[in-house]
Design goal:
Layout: E1 26-27, E2 31-35, E3 39-45, E4 49-59, E5 62-69, E6 88-94, E7 105-109, E8 112-118
Parallel strand pairs: 1-6
Antiparallel strand pairs: 2-3, 3-8, 4-5, 5-6, 7-8
Length: 133
């Protein structure tokens, strides 16, 4: 596969993105995805989000994550330094049919959402015994 990091811009394919239709500020959470024989595990960083403010929805082969951040109270003093931006988190993932949608589960620990996407039985690898004669 060719390394596209050093290719001139004119040689790169343009990637079409959906038009944004949500108002306000939204951030894309950092995500790690790990695959095992039995499942995919998705880890999404959601700093400043309370567990009850996480919405995870599966519909038509798409997993949609939306997390609301409660705004911090404004201090009466002037800011000396302000680097932390406030806004909600949004991310959507296409889910392959090898995932058992009825068994998707999620948990929230220390600002990290962990989504378990179990594979259907037919997609899981299985060991086949080799017989000798």
């Amino acid at each position: 596969m060719a390394d596209m990091t050093h290719a001139p811009a004119r040689d790169r394919a343009e990637v079409a993105q959906a038009e944004a239709t949500r108002g306000g500020v939204f951030f894309t959470p950092a995500v790690d995805i790990v695959e095992t024989d039995k499942e995919l595990a998705l880890f999404a960083e959601l700093p400043g989000v309370k567990p009850e403010d996480v919405s995870l929805r599966y519909e038509n082969g798409e997993l949609v994550l939306h997390a609301k951040v409660t705004p911090r109270t404004q201090a009466p003093q002037a800011w000396l330094l302000r680097e932390y931006e406030q806004g909600d988190f949004y991310r959507a993932f296409r889910i392959h049919e090898s995932i058992d949608a009825g068994k998707i589960a999620a948990e929230f620990k220390n600002g990290v959402l962990i989504v378990h996407l179990p594979k259907v039985e037919a997609a899981q690898p299985r060991q086949i015994a080799v017989k000798t004669q």
